[in-house]
Inverse folding.
């Protein structure tokens, strides 16, 4: 993955990959650096290898790391295993975590659980009263590959999150940007 030509990977991701390798080389016993690196690799498309490495790193320590569960949950969502993703997200995150609530809401939307989704939306709005789908779209576009960001937004829309913003010009420009 890291050795692909720059045409296949964005330059910043390729540079981050190189720096991650260097950090691991300089700190071979620092498990957190390895976990951060492999979590980054998962989110940038190297799902199978990254999850295997995260599992290996997790087995080498007595401490359970959220990176492993988060990567598995995001991957499950990515491949359409929404029930599995929902279970993993619920295990990996704290209830006051904004991103955790968004991930759980995405799964509820994809599963068609509108009553639970409505409850989760009210919780989200109490954490962040002015939160809009457009803000979430920008957050997702900074953290996920474009196809995954679109898939996440689809789950939020199916859940009924911020329906009025779905037609906003700003979101349409995000969709165009992400494609």
């Amino acid at each position: 993955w890291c050795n692909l030509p720059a045409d296949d990977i964005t330059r910043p991701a390729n540079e981050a990959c190189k720096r991650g390798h260097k950090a691991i080389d300089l700190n071979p016993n620092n498990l957190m650096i390895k976990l951060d690196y492999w979590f980054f690799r998962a989110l940038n498309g190297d799902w199978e290898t990254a999850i295997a490495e995260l599992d290996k790193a997790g087995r080498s320590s007595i401490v359970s790391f959220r990176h492993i569960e988060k990567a598995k949950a995001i991957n499950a969502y990515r491949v359409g295993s929404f029930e599995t993703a929902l279970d993993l997200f619920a295990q990996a995150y704290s209830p006051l975590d904004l991103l955790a609530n968004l991930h759980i809401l995405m799964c509820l939307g994809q599963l068609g659980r509108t009553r639970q989704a409505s409850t989760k939306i009210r919780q989200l709005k109490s954490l962040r009263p002015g939160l809009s789908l457009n803000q979430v779209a920008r957050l997702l576009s900074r953290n996920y590959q474009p196809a995954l960001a679109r898939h996440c937004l689809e789950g939020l829309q199916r859940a009924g999150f911020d329906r009025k913003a779905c037609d906003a010009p700003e979101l349409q420009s995000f969709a165009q940007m992400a494609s």
Summary: The mean pLDDT is 78.
